[in-house]
Amino acid sequence: MKPYKIALIPGDGIGPEVVAEGVKVLKAIEEVDKNISFSFTTFPWGCEYYLKYGKMMDEKALDLLKDYDAIYLGAVGYPGVPDHISLRDLLIKIRRGFDQYVNLRPVSLLHPDLTPLKAKSEKDIDMLVIRENSEGEYAGAGEWLFKGNPEEVVLQTGVFSRKGTERIIRYAYEEARKSNRTLTSISKGNALNYSHVFWDQLFEEIGMEYPDVETYSYLVDAASLYFVTQPERFGVVVTSNLFGDIVTDIGAGITGGLGLATGANINPEKSYPSMFEPVHGSAPDIAGKGACNPIAAIWSVSQMLDFFGLEDWGSAVLQVIREVLKDKESLTADLGGRATTEELGEYIIEKLIK
Ligand code: ATP
Ligand code: MG
């Protein structure tokens, strides 16, 4: 049996601590399921690497990574290294280089105590946000005119190609059809009179091919309100790069915060590896203390297993996370418990393989 080849980029701060727990989960699965095997290679890239060598990754990084089935990333970031460098030279480089144009962010409440929203339960908050991950408002296009003059003008251009917009919308329709859920598009066609008019038009056009999928289209401002007041309105959600960035943080806010949020950067065609990562950063304030919460990183592992087509294991991991969240004592300090990172990781594995 061919092993799934996984490239590990543990990164900085708590990154290595949470990745270690995720890897243990994969190894435990391999141990009990003889039909599955994984191989791991660690790459020491990130901000510490940058401080030593003046670059975030090896020059040949993309070449070194391209034959892996998946990349498992911890976190990058370090006090003293500007965020835009760590983002641009590692995360964005991999996302763009490997055309990971789908950002998959589940926004699911795993335990009712985790939401600040009164009277909302697990069945009310259970959505999948699909964020465009390769162009749009974050394409980096624009111009700085008359710099330093009183006439100074700065242009930031959103880039919405037909190909780029169609493929993300189509991906979302497929996902909604497959999971038999509603599909909501979030945009701002009334104010962004080129880009989002185009987005809305394509959402409708492609919808003709999916008459079985129930659709909604909300303006981003209204959608932000509904995320908080009526999250039960949403099933699968598709949105642009900028709006996806923002609404998924609202999503994290209503489901228990950063220690729990996960995101996958997917290249659906599998021409290149996809990348799985917890949403949180390197959290230098708690790094090295064995105090961080590994659940977001372990949820990333569940997403990776789904992506490999090992959905039984993917769901099993998520189910165990739900169960563990019921037992407050077994959790890390951010969730009010007293366990260390490793203790919580071990507890999850124990429940998973029994
Ligand atoms: P970076 O610069 O890498 O983004 P950051 O400190 O700006 O790091 P995060 O690491 O994303 O931002 O998180 C902010 C705070 O949330 C952290 O300082 C930490 O206290 C808390 N936090 C984040 N992730 C976790 C986690 N997995 N477990 C416990 N607390 C966490
Ligand atoms: Mg940060």
From TrEMBL:
Residues 5-348 form the Isopropylmalate dehydrogenase-like domain. Keywords: Manganese, Metal-binding, NAD, Oxidoreductase. The keyword Amino-acid biosynthesis does not apply. InterPro entries: ICDH/IPMDH, IsoCit/isopropylmalate_DH_CS, IsoPropMal-DH-like_dom. Its cofactor is Mn(2+); Mg(2+). GO terms for molecular function: magnesium ion binding; NAD binding; oxidoreductase activity, acting on the CH-OH group of donors, NAD or NADP as acceptor. The keyword rRNA-binding does not apply. This is Tartrate dehydrogenase. It comes from Oceanobacillus bengalensis.
